[in-house]
Amino acid sequence: MNDTSLTPTAGVLLAGGAGTRLGLGPKALLPFRGRTLVELLAKALLDGGCHEVVVVLGAGAEEVRRTTDLDGYLVVDNPEWASGMASSFRTGIAAAAHGHNVLVALVDQPGLTPGVVARLLAAHRPGRVTAAGYAEDAINGSAPAKLRRGHPLIIDAALRAEAAESAVGDAGARRFLKAHPGLVDVVDCSDLADGTDVDTKAQLHLLTD
Length: 209
Description:
Layout: E1 9-15, E2 31-32, E3 35-36, H1 37-47, E4 52-57, H2 61-67, E5 74-77, H3 85-95, E6 101-106, H4 114-123, E7 129-135, E8 147-155, H5 160-166, H6 174-179, E9 184-188
Parallel strand pairs: 1-4, 1-6, 4-5, 7-9
Antiparallel strand pairs: 2-3, 6-8, 7-8
Helix pairs in contact: 1-4, 3-5
């Protein structure tokens, strides 16, 4: 039995990005499968087993609230979103229910499914960080594919304050993970998703499947 049966996990969806390189407005409002990314991914976190979902808005927060259906989620604004992801990361962790683990996800990962969330929740162990891993292509087929650590990731309730304090600039948990590599368990989710972010116009095709 893992600790998720004892310690609930709050999903934290970081949805504050302006999507400047895409030029299509806030990333939260990008259309995908007939809805917006923020709506679909918040639902994926809840359907995957998160006890609650915190949605952190930033760029275009008023428009996002006005044009999407986020009823059933805790929606919070990060007025400092332009300073980088770290501020949204801290905002989301602070808003999540006290004593809960936090599962941090990014709104620009259209491939995230409830199955990925459920797998991470099932694998999480007390006092650890559990991150989704995605296979990198083997070089010339000469070596087994390696796992690239990505999102979502679960930060144990006992670690969330330290992780939040360590976040700076445009990185969320990166400094914390680098300082504590022995705490991180990477769970292969390659059969469920590829972990790709929509950051550039060249990646917009990910929103057309």
